[in-house]
Amino acid sequence: MPATRLPHDAKAGPTKPEVRAVTVSKLGLTETDHFVEVGSCTGAVTVEAARRAGRVTALERSPEKLDVTRKNLAANGLADANIELVAAEAPEGLPADADALFVGGSRNFKAVLDHAVETGVARVVMNVSRLETAGRAVEAFRERDLLDEVVQLQASYGYELAGATSFESENPVYVITGGAGDASADRGGVGA
Ligand SMILES: C[S@@+](CC[C@H](N)C(=O)[O-])C[C@H]1O[C@@H](n2cnc3c(N)ncnc32)[C@H](O)[C@@H]1O
């Protein structure tokens, strides 16, 4: 896969490359999938998902940020890909035929998860950085029988200090994974 270029920036993004790698892996995207994203912001995840999924719908409540998504998709040669960009605050605007859903923005997340259950989304991944929101999100997955696992990721980046290598740490991110239906074993779920 080519490296993801993000020449256009937006507040609250981008998701770090290491977190994107795990997120996209958990989503298990294939070329027949309709991938849906809530909160595309810089489009960092949108770009990587669009290289794997057959169809993409990206929702972003901020029209300015949606424009950043659009520009970064173009910067990665994906301007003509099968991607629909929707300026809406989910659950408004969510399609009913998603195979894989990534919740990158947490507003209304319970209603978003309700929609995932109602429409039988096979793979759902939600990334959360704030502890309290992570706790509520895990509960919401569990209450809806969506939960497979929770992974806490924390990357530290090495930099040179006095001729040696020291590390600068990023905030941890909670990657909550699951899905509707009986596909837990296929997703490698551990029944968290
Ligand atoms: C943490 S950022 C996502 C970062 C993104 N994954 C990236 O790499 O740039 C969260 C984004 O979700 C958007 N958002 C939050 N809740 C939303 C909702 N219910 N519907 C649509 N967008 C939402 C916010 O406007 C914000 O741009």
TrEMBL record:
Keywords (A to Z) from UniProt: Cobalamin biosynthesis, Methyltransferase, S-adenosyl-L-methionine, Transferase
Residues holding S-adenosyl-L-methionine: 15, 39-43, 60, 90
SUPFAM superfamilies xref list: S-adenosyl-L-methionine-dependent methyltransferases
Single Gene Ontology MF annotation: methyltransferase activity
Domain of life: Archaea
Alphabetical list of Pfam families matching this protein: Methyltransf_25
Gene3D superfamilies: Vaccinia Virus protein VP39
GO terms under biological process: anaerobic cobalamin biosynthetic process; methylation
PANTHER family the UniProt entry points to: COBALT-PRECORRIN-6B C(15)-METHYLTRANSFERASE (DECARBOXYLATING), COBALT-PRECORRIN-7 C(5)-METHYLTRANSFERASE
Similarity comment: family membership: Belongs to the methyltransferase superfamily. Archaeal-type CbiT family.
Name of the molecule in the record: Probable cobalt-precorrin-6B C(15)-methyltransferase (decarboxylating)
Gene source species: Halobaculum roseum
Gene name per UniProt: cbiT
